[in-house]
Design goal:
The chain is of the alpha/beta class and 292 residues long. It contains eleven helices and ten strands. It has helices at 3-16, 18-25, 65-74, 93-102, 116-122, 145-154, 156-161, 177-221, 225-228, 244-249, 268-274, and strands at 37-40, 46-52, 55-58, 83-87, 108-113, 137-141, 164-168, 237-241, 261-265, 281-283. The N and C termini lie far apart (59 Å).
Length: 292
Amino acid sequence: MTDDLRSANLVFLSNRFPQLAEQIKSHRIPPGRLRPTIHSCEKNAYTASVDIDGREIFLHSRYDPVREAQRWASSQTPPSGSVVLIVGWGMGHHALEWIKSFGQIVEAVIVFEPEPELFKTSLFCIDLKPLALARRLELIVGCDAPAFDEAIQNLIEPLLSRDLSLLPLPFVDIYPAEVTAFLKANIQKLIQRRESILQQMAVSGFRCQEQIIRNLPVMTDAYFPRDVRGKAAGQPAIIVAAGPSLDRNIDCLPSNQGCAWFFAVDTSLRILRQRGIDAQFAVTKDPTERNR
C-alpha cells in the first residue's frame, strides 16, 4: 500500500480516462456512503472491509484475495453478450482476474463501482494495468448518470447488435438499494435508446446505405479523424448553424475566411455557399431528402 502505486495508477488513468483521473486528483468525486478499512494479508496483498449496520463485512479473502479472485474468475462461464457490465470493484481483485480471463473475448467491458471511496482506496493497493487487457473499456465511479450515459454512448455500436450482460461481483450485496434503482433506471434508458435507434435505422436505412455507397469514392481519399487529430491545435474555429443568429452575423463571416476553420451544420452549408463562403467541414445527422 504505497503512494508510488497510486501515482502510477493515476498516470494510467490519465492516459485512458483523463476526466476521471482529474476528478480524483482534485477531490471532486462525492465520497459515497461506504468507508473502507484496509487490511494487509499474508500473501502480500490487501483486502478491505466495510461497516454495514454495525457488522464488519469483508469484500475479499482475508488470507489470499488474489487466489480467491482467480478461483472465482475460473468458475465463470464465457460471457454471451458483446458488452459486459461488471457491477462492483472493491479492491479490484475480482474484476481484474475476470478481465485477464475474458477481456479479449467480449467486445467491451464496463466496470461500475458505485462507492467512490472503494475505488480511490484501491489505487494504493493494486496495479490497474491489467485493465488494458480489455479490448474496449469504460470505467464508471459513483452513481454518476452523465458518466453512465457517456459510457453507453461510447459503446452504442456493439450494444445495437447484441445484448448487455450484467456480472455482479460476489460482494455486491454491500451496496445500498439506491444502486439497484440507479442501474435499473439507466438500463431502461439504454433499452429505450436502442429501440429508438433501431426504429430510425429501419425507416432511413435504405437512404443511409445509398449515401454510404455514394460516399465510398470520397472516403477512399479522405483522412480519418485519427489522421488529422491535433493538426489545427491552437487555431480558431467557427461553427455555423442556420437560424436567426446566422442571419444577424453572416456578413461578418467572409472576412474570417483563411483565418479560421468553418464547420457548417447541415442546412447552413447551402446558405454559406450562396454567400461564397467555403466551409472546411459539414456535419449532419439528419438524412432528410432536403439535407441530402
